[in-house]
Amino acid sequence: MTPPETIAIETRELTRTFRRFIAVDSVSLQVRKGEIFGLLGANGAGKTTTIRMLTGLLKPSRGEAWVAGIPVHSSPEKVKHRLGYMSQRFSLYEDLTVAENLTFFGGVYGLRRPDLRRRKEALLDLFDLKDMADRITSSLPTGHRQRLALASALVHEPPLLFLDEPTGGIDPVARRTFWRVISDLASAGVTVMVTTHYMDEAEYCHRLGIMRDGRIVAVGSPDELRNTHQVATMEEVFLNVAGTGEDAS
Amino acid sequence: MIGRTIAVMAKEFRHIVRDSRSLMIIFIMPVVMTFLYGYAMNFDIKDIPLGVVDQDSTPASRELTTSFLASGQFVLAGRYRDMGDAEEGFSFRETVLTLVIPRGFSRSLDGGPERPLGLLVDGSDPNTASLALGYAQGIISRVTIEGSMNALSVVRDRSGSAVGWEGLPIELHPRFWYNPEQKSSHFIVPALIAVILMMASALLTSATVVREKETGTLEQLLVSPVRPGELIVGKLLPYGVLAMADGAFILFFGAMVFGVPIRGSLLVLFGFTGLYIMAALTIGLLISTLVDQQRVAMFGAMLVTVLPAFMLSNFIFPVKSMPVFLQLISRVVPATYYIPIVRGVLLKGVGADVFWENGLFLLALTVILTVVSIARFKPRLD
Q1: What order do you get walking across the sheet with B97-101 strand by strand?
Q2: Fewest Cβ atoms nearer than 10 Å: which of A49, A147, A235, B139?
Q3: pLDDT of residue B34
Q4: CATH class of B48-159
Q5: Is A181 within the bounds of a domain?
Q6: pLDDT in tens, B167-203
Q7: Which residue of B has its CA nearest to A79?
């Protein structure tokens, strides 16, 4: 059954196994339109596998995944126009320039030339990459690469954005700028699902789902989670529900 | 759909321009290979070491020896007293062929009792042996024919009446068409072009998909709306243009360096070469979709292109004399179909009417491999 219009992402008993290993175990959750939803968890908790199923990169072993009203578990192709995705690993063409990467992804998403030019201008502006437009991507500092990756994911103005550990390896200042852009997008109605294991970043999320061993073990806004567990910080919440939390910093 | 294919093509062109390695595959490797194989694979045999056992020691026998040496195909390696000596010549690899002129040879030319000449050949290298033997028989028949013609005329002088043309030996004047100088390079270089083209083209595309797997960019492509067919075709066409330029380069370079004539139509040659190149590119592409590492892909591309193109394509070794299963494999080796074309157009100047079936096979192979590549391309990570 199609979820209501106000729900951008819904999963029902979403499960993925790799041989006998259960990476994601019966995950059911709802993300509202315009919400920033954070998936929190240690490495191997199943965050990336969940995102990969939602973006159509992996086929669920069981369960359903609805994204923008489209059943991704059965017709992953239909949702591709509507989502932007930034993988954990930097995955743009390092031998192309900044502008060429944007041009390519614009072309792949079917942007017409005038739209493409307008979007490129806007994104280079937004991410402060104007001076770097003709630089070969491999020569960019990490922070700039991250911005370019996000810009490329946004070139077709998707209503949904999936970010898999987008701020790994960049400095705190760059991270704050990055999150400001994410917040602005959400205000403009874009739904964002983001994985992270930085506790301070959890505060930027409207709601959080904490994962452990492939399961969602807690869901709620940062305040709700702190209140339920009667602790002062997210870190404590995380240690309470996610066990060891050895990868959480 | 067209737009996405064009986007992929534009991107691939940029990769090509910025990737010095692919440009090296394209222009430097063929030059090196053409030189190396073009000069090394030479079947012209000159200066065959000749042993002589002259038991006759007459002007006629000396003249026969001189004829061998004057032909340019033999050089005198040693004179031996008898067969035992001559055998040592073989053992020490001094000689490849030994001419034994028996006592009474000169008289046999003048109508005396027949004294057969002996030719001993080192058969451990059958190719050289049969060539040497061929040359030797040619020289001997020329000399003895001249000799017996003298004999005939002597007979006529004595009787005073014409004996007529009866018994006059037939003289052979063989003419080699298409390669009158019998240069083996004319035979080798066109086929060599086929092998190099096959290898260079397959190597080019073998890296394209697997490189995206390695760098992670494939993941970004898979979440995008680009379809496997658009990706495969978008990758194929830019490399097609590049490989075609490379093909022209290799053809002209090979022909120029080794003086191979281009007797046929260039249009026909390029048309069929284009089909052949596309077949090679799709082989590389299919490999690229199947494996996970660039190194494996390039090694695989070398393996499945170079060896069959050399061994199973009638390049040098006739497929007809191979076991049936090898003959069957040779039927799907593109070079089997292209080598007759490139040899035919360059050396014989024949046209498309002779080769359309071969062209059709190459086209069919390209289409099949493209379809398989698209089908094998997994639109998901699992």
Answers
A1: B74-79, B48-54, B97-101, B118-121
A2: A235
A3: 86
A4: alpha beta
A5: yes
A6: 344 555 667 777 776 677 888 888 988 999 999 999 9
A7: B225
